[in-house]
Amino acid sequence: MTTAPDTISTETAAIEMRGIVKRFPGVVANDGINLVVRKGEIHALLGENGAGKSTLMNILFGLYHPDEGQIFVDGDEVHFHSARDAVDAGLGMVHQHFMLIPRFTVTENVILGHEGAGGLVLDRQAAAQRVGEIAASYGLKVDPAAKVGDLPVGMQQRVEILRALYHGSRILILDEPTALLTPQEVEELYGILGKLREDGGTIIFITHKLREVAAISDRVTVIRRGKTIGTRVTSETTAGDLAEMMVGREVLLRVDRPPARPGQEVLSCQDIVVTRPDGTTALDHLSLTVRRGEIVGIAGVEGNGQSELVEVLSGLRRPDSGSVHLNHRDVTQRDPNGFRAAGLSYIPEDRHGRGLVLDFPLWENVLLGNTEREPFVYDGRIDVGETKSITGRLMGAFDVRAPSPETIARTLSGGNQQKLIIARELQREPEAVLAIQPTRGLDVGAIEFVHRQLVETRDREKGILLISFELDEVLDLSDRILVIFQGKIIAEYESGKVTRTELGLAMGGRGQEEHLAAD
Amino acid sequence: MPRISSMVIVNIVNILGSIAAIIVALLAGAVLISIAGQQPVEAYRALLDGSINGKRAIAETLVYSCPLILGGLSFAVALRAGMFNIGIEGQLMIGGLAAGLVGALHLGLPLYIHLPLALLAAMAAGGIWGAIPGAMKAFSGAHEVISTIMLNYLAYRLTAYVVQKTGKWLPVQPSLQATKKVVPEARLPRILDGTRLHAGIIVAIIAAFVLWYLLFRTTFGYKVRTVGLSRGAAAYGGINWGLTITLAMLASGILAGLAGAGETLGLQGRQYTAPQGYGFTAIAVGLVGRNNPIGIIFAGILFGALNSGAPSMQADAGVSKEITQVLQGFVILAVAGFAVLNNSSLARKVLTSGQSRRRDRAAAIGTEPDVEVRAGPPAL
User: Fold this and answer.
1) Distance of residue B366 Cα from the nearest chain A Cα, in angstroms
2) Which class would CATH give A1-90+170-250?
3) What is the mean pLDDT of residues B257-285?
């Protein structure tokens, strides 16, 4: 694997980082990374979680000091001591989690840090006007007077971009900018970035998603385990090549999935109503059915009732009205262990807060949800030896990399933690599986493993309900796709008979008008 | 090659941390004694002399240890469920009162019936006193720190009321501000001739091992610990939060009640209306013992030794015996300090592999999505 020749001279490079080394106690986060970003390009920085992308960008933005290496901006070597220095040199960064003050207006947030420029008195009028001008010139449709807390996530991100531009940034660093956006908002972001590029701006786009690299970048640099693996011109490479560079081995990007042969109904709910404590309706007479041998995916923008639906379908919450059936039994009034007894396994979205007790060893985590089942427990007494040996076997079968069943769960990587949860949930030989965001935060290799497990479980005649905010995951895995919007299922599609765009529109509720019109 | 499990390492780190904390506390105490113009070496020699030199000294140490061990266990089981039980003092007093009343009745029963009856009464009374704040939190969210403190005062006043106003029906002696003398058939027998050492210490040590088994080998203990560490995971695992914290507080109250019974049936022979303060020192014992029942045995003995050595320190070295209370304070501070250190660097260095540290670091700088810790829905 060789680095693509970078014959360009430093004069045309907006950013050059040479031999960057950054050590943290016991770990080398950046191990001699080289990166050349040309002026006026969108440069993707691709790598798995923990590869060192964010560390590198935090160094570039002056938040960390490199132990070794040099940084050049527009050909001049720089030594940033703080983010302020980086901003003064023309850099701007949009963090994954926005650094905005919700109670402030857009203008107030944008000018934050430069508010004193006109002396002690804050000239709101002039500031608002200038913010409006910049917004208009880049097609960032934002109302300068709106309170940031009232804006949707996509808009908040634009405020971040606006702030960087207001502060005179010509080089913009975006850290995983699409993580919280709907597909439509992502498209709009691409539009904005394209406009910035036309205007001569330079953009570094951090991501671990191959689709985004292909969609937006001119060139891409892949880093793995703190090292530069190589830089490619995006149009001259393939997703497969990039995945291999990123993971270090060949990766199946799409799960091999024979067509589903759905059988009998195994999990269903009818007419579920859930009202939130604030009086709003979370689930609005929602009904759905999962049959044996199929994966039903639920697509939707976060906050449309998914978490309440999961709680109802797992026994964590009793619905206000409606019923849940599992394996032909009415389980509406049961608790989570009652659902398990009826044949449910549940892979929760929140590994740390729900799926695991992080301070327990692995074997005690395998006990979670199994406290009423032999061979783990007899008459309230835990069979420690048996539970440990089951844990050991599960670790082997599901490739959980940890020294022993005694290892504390907190010390495992996210991928290994998730594999342990999946191992625990699938060893129960469930009739139905709730898989909620099963690959959230995992890297490509672990995602492949999780997807394969789910498909294999489906092929053993189990029913699977998949809820994910990753549209690609829903599209890749599901045999049927339901779209949830404002607590209702508003559309249903067969696998392969729907495009991303259609699905994205439906997720935004736009399918609903047709749906209502058809009634 | 045998692999040392990380649980064992955690325990070793905890034990070393506690020992280091005690050494630091003793050094700080030495500085204080020097400032006061006395000889720290002599003071500590006298302290040791009074607490471990000879049969009588050791017996006294164990006499003081008995309520501290039981109280420490009481604190530990509650804290394992995430409940900060400051009501041990009140539960101990109510337990002692029940034991004193039942023990003072002339029932004509043999020791092997009357003594267990008195112990059971103490466990029941202490248990109820402990379960009340547990249930209050489970049903209404009332914070246990507030409710247990308030129940302490209720316990003091109730004891005073019973002693002064119920002489017609109950065996009390208002003139002594105490219950009537416990009959010999209900006394915890002396187990070492010529000393005050009674069988309460055996009860305490058995209780520690029983609690260890309950916490680490039964589903009850598993549920208690899960609830204490992650309410969200407990809900996911089908564990009823409200029921579990109530049961943990019940167990905590039972142990505190036993501590009270040990004093009443073993040492004093009656329950007085004045609080003794063991319930608060017990919190320190629980913390120094790291909420581990076996660790608490040692922590209880340490604090017992400080109490029993204090008089000889005053007599032989001229150092005020209140200095031992300062020492106890230093031990608590040092243990808390070492616990912070443990969490930040020491334990992490020993425990985590490079990979996980990389992940922690990655999470710290934001390459991994932040994971929200959401509590489950209310269980009751």
Assistant:
1) 7
2) alpha beta
3) 93
